[in-house]
Design goal:
This is PIHD3 protein. By secondary structure, this protein is mostly beta strands. It has one helix at 44-49, and strands spanning 34-39, 63-69, 79-82, 86-90, 95-99, 104-114, 119-126.
Amino acid sequence: RVKSENSKTIWNTEEVPEGSEFDDTWDPREQPEYEILFKQCVGTEDVFFGMSGKDPSTACCEDIVIKIKLPETKYSDITLDIQDTVLDLRTPKKKLLLHLPYPVNSKDGRARFLSEEEILEVTLRVSRKFDFINFA
């Protein structure tokens, strides 16, 4: 049994899932449409010879690309917070709390707003332990 430092606590902070502080069921804003894509870096040795052992599965992908449709939104209205397993996006009209399929490196990501298409594109590097396919 784990002994709590404060006798009035109900659970330890390790027991609370990451991102649960963002859950807000009373927020009336709607969730935007989004798409999750996986991206991997392949070379000719992968395409023609299959030398690296990579396959088209998500287990061999290095990046997660999330495309979020934000109609009638300006770049300055977007608030984006990324943690290792959670993406939290807020605009005046939309709200998205997305639990990511793989842990990511929250410090190494890119986001760009394509104003013509009204899409926010977020690219995040997947954080994996060393295995026989992914060496980075």
